[in-house]
């Protein structure tokens, strides 16, 4: 375990490993515009040169800056990135081209999961987010044509709504049993060697393969210590969703080979069959396939064969009708109620406008996601519940009216 230190620049001076807690940068780095960063031009005749091409890097930079995000383990912020690149990009680019670049460890951040427990995100440094985004933009066109039409997560032009509609279509076609596959700690258990073998089928440039492996193996920094990683791909970096799709595409191919109806959104996969008996056989055989071929494990406590209207997928439920209708799952309603209550508790002595400013984006985002619901009653009941809560808040502030435009 340990942290990375400074490296020598071409001029023999120490170049900080993209930051440290106090990265050496020009005094006006936060104000340095992206246009002032000089990307060295190169003939895009190999994959790494395409990754490092000025046009690709500019696009990656815009994406990283627009996404904002917190600093990684080195402390470098998005606002400081342009100044850092202006000073150090030539030496960084040389190390990337020669295969000598070493990523910084990711910063571990724990966030609560909706069903309890925590999910650990690995936040890369801002510089590594830029490099990963540049890689992603060149790797995606290589792998997209290989992916299944029934895979929807983190892919261009695809969405959770499309996955939900496809699940409903399978049920409407008579496949009225769902085999729900819950992969146990998927992102923590991705086998690096297997994933790299799959990557090598499409990626010939050894420098790109080496760099991706180094991102997989980059340590996780928590409490000032770096733990080395032998398996898994941390959630939080631009590359992680693509790498997970590359691995799980092998599951998609197996399901297609068997002729199954299925839907997959990232690591959330359902297979639709005509009977419980067929579902139990599919579940058992897929458990063997995942363990033997992909070195992954099913969580048997959460994986099940069930009627679709007695469960949920991506926050939605279905009705029992022959042509099922989509509805909001009860668990989704409960999570929103808990979120609203937590905002009310956080308000404490703040003004009502503070609460409304924070509540509105939550409600708008929730309403937008659940716009496919064909049942209005839960939404109407939720609206009444929120308004009653706000009235109680108003009574506590001495006001007696809720502005009509507030929510």
From TrEMBL:
Catalytic reaction(s) noted: DNA(n) + a 2'-deoxyribonucleoside 5'-triphosphate = DNA(n+1) + diphosphate
Residue numbers spanned by region Disordered: 1-36
GO molecular function, one term: metal ion binding
EC class: transferase
Key words of the record: Antiviral defense, Magnesium, Metal-binding, Nucleotidyltransferase, RNA-directed DNA polymerase, Transferase
Gene Ontology terms describing biological process: defense response to virus
Pfam families per record: GIIM, RVT_1
Listed InterPro entries: DNA/RNA_pol_sf (IPR043502), Group_II_RT_mat (IPR030931), GrpII_Intron_Splice-Mob/Def (IPR051083), Mat_intron_G2 (IPR013597), Reverse_transcriptase_msDNA (IPR000123), RT_dom (IPR000477)
Reverse transcriptase domain location: 92-318
This enzyme's EC code(s): 2.7.7.49
Family from the record: Belongs to the bacterial reverse transcriptase family.
Name of the protein described by the UniProt record: RNA-directed DNA polymerase
Originating species: Aquipseudomonas alcaligenes
Lineage of the organism: Bacteria, Pseudomonadati, Pseudomonadota, Gammaproteobacteria, Pseudomonadales
């Amino acid at each position: 375990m340990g942290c990375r230190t400074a490296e020598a620049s071409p001029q023999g001076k120490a170049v900080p490993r993209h930051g440290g807690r106090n990265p050496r940068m020009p005094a006006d780095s936060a104000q340095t515009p992206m246009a002032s960063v000089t990307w060295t031009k190169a003939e895009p005749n190999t994959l790494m040169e395409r990754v490092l091409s000025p046009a690709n890097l500019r696009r990656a930079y815009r994406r990283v800056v627009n996404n904002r995000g917190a600093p990684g383990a080195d402390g470098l912020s998005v606002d400081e990135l342009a100044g850092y690149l202006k000073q150090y990009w030539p030496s960084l680019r040389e190390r990337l081209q020669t295969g000598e670049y070493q990523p910084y460890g990711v910063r571990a951040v724990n966030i609560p999961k909706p069903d309890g427990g925590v999910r650990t995100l690995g936040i890369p440094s801002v510089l590594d987010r830029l490099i990963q985004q540049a890689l992603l933009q060149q790797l995606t066109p290589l792998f997209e044509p290989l992916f299944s039409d029934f895979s929807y997560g983190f892919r261009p032009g695809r969405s959770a709504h499309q996955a939900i509609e496809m699940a409903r279509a399978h049920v409407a076609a008579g496949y009225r049993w769902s085999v729900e596959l819950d992969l146990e700690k998927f992102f923590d258990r991705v086998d690096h060697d297997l994933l790299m073998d799959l990557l090598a089928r499409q990626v010939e440039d050894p420098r790109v393969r080496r760099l991706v492996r180094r991102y997989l193996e980059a340590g996780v920094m928590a409490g000032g210590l770096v733990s080395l990683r032998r398996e898994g791909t941390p959630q939080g970096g631009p590359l992680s969703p693509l790498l997970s799709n590359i691995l799980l595409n092998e599951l998609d191919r197996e399901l297609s080979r068997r002729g199954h109806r299925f839907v997959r959104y990232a690591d959330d996969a359902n297979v639709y069959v005509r009977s419980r008996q067929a579902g139990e056989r599919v579940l058992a055989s897929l458990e063997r396939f995942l363990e033997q071929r992909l070195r992954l494990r099913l969580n048997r406590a959460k994986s099940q064969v069930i009627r679709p209207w007695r469960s949920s997928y991506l926050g939605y439920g279905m009705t029992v009708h022959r042509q099922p209708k989509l509805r909001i799952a009860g668990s989704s309603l409960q999570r929103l109620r808990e979120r609203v209550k937590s905002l009310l508790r956080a308000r404490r002595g703040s003004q009502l406008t503070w609460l409304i400013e924070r509540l509105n984006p939550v409600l708008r985002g929730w309403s937008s996601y659940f716009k496919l619901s064909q049942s209005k009653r839960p939404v109407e009941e939720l609206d009444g519940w929120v308004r009653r809560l706000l009235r109680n808040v108003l009574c506590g502030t001495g006001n007696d009216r809720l502005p009509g435009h507030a929510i």
